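Internal QA ticket QA-208
Title: Verify multi-chain structure generation after dependency bump
Assignee: T.L.

Test input:
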Amino acid sequence: METLDRPAIRKLMGEVLAVQGKTLPADDAAKLADIGFRSLDFSELALRVEDEIGDELNFEAAGLRSIETIGDVLDLLVEIQGQ
Amino acid sequence: MIGDNLVIDAGTGARATWRELAQRSAGPRKSPTAYAVERSIEALPAVAGLADGGELLVISSGRLDESLAEELRAAGFDVAVGDDLRAATSPRPADDGRVWLLTSGSTGRPKRVGHTLETLSTVTGELAPRTWLCPYSPGTYAWWQVVTLGLGVPGQDLVLVDPADLDDWVSPALEHGVTAVSGTPTFWRRTLMRHGADLQKLQLKQITLGGEPVDQAVLSQLSEAFPDARVSWIYASSEVGASIVVHDGRAGFPVDWLDRDVPGRPRLAVVDGELVITSPHHGTDASGAELAGAVRTGDAARIEDGRVLVTGRLDRDELNVGGSKVSAGAVRDLLQSHPEVAWAAVRGRKAPLVGTMVVADVVAGPGTDVSADDLTRWAAERLPEYAVPRRIKMLAEIPAKETLKSDV
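Actual output:
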């Protein structure tokens, strides 16, 4: 199964924001709340990743965690591919 | 009415007692009135004023399309959207104390079910004092369940969070001392993923799930995250009331609850894979006649390991995006109203955090080059955020099998 690396997921994340006229900051520590990246945007990003890899992501495998920054999103989506 | 119970609007931090809310009511209107509101708090003065009379229906403004507004006006309702009041086309006097809820009928169109504050209040006996979070969409049965708790049961305060603000509910819940939270499984999944660390700070005593199929994974995760809380799930709807209440922390209900006759309790059955309920908590139909007999719920049910699992809607028109209801047909109609769109099909797709997202297949008209991103942006100008199709697949031609369908 194909998997996406961190830069590829970052590119998709930028595309989600670009449709809304927003720009993804270069700093992974940027807060999602500050850039207006909300639950619907996260969900859309997950679907874009699923479409790219041709498989459903298993979020049950992620466990309890806080997702507050760009880096948190990228970490999560890199981690759960293939699980 | 319990006038001293508090209502707190998490969006603004404003707080008021029910007595104060009743004083803000303009008094009972002589005509039945449908209030289309963006935010829960906007509907509460009219709800508090019901004690003095009036007939009302509350609906989230995102759910009110033109045809539904016309349907309501023809049924005698003035339709209030903010300060705009559109008079009924078939006026009639208000039936004092009548409360109408909208549900999805078997054809996918909402239908009205009549209640009163009494028939909506299913909690009996004394409750320990609680501060409840109400995260539901205004006017839904679950919303009324929480609202009538605050309105009618001593010591039950409410903190209102609107579905659009659910990303940030934990902070106001901590600030206002929330001890009981009722939410859909989607709400809880999103919460567990997004706020894992902060959740430990909440001192929850009661967790309730309802409004969607409840699976074992979410129940187990909640029991682990909140070891001091009772975790319950409820099956309820505007037509059959709160018919199934399960406190044992397991998905589904015991199979020996089926086909059992207990006075004053709903009779549960599974017929052709569909949950069927004969309930003493019925409302009325649109004509005001008492609903009676078995109700086909439209929910799929299956028996597994001695439990009856309720697994989802048989009818897929109504999508639930993070607690907000979206009519797939209404979104499809909007996309098909775009001058460069020839055909569209809209459906829900499983997604993290919000449970379901709206997605679409679209065929562009001949000689046009509209893109998926163009359509998403165009739809975003016309629909609530949660109803916008985020993934649109452009097809070269209308699928042959789809042309045989009359509806989504």
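Spot checks passed. The domain at 318-404 of chain B is CATH 3.30.300.30 (GMP Synthetase; Chain A, domain 3).
Status: verified.
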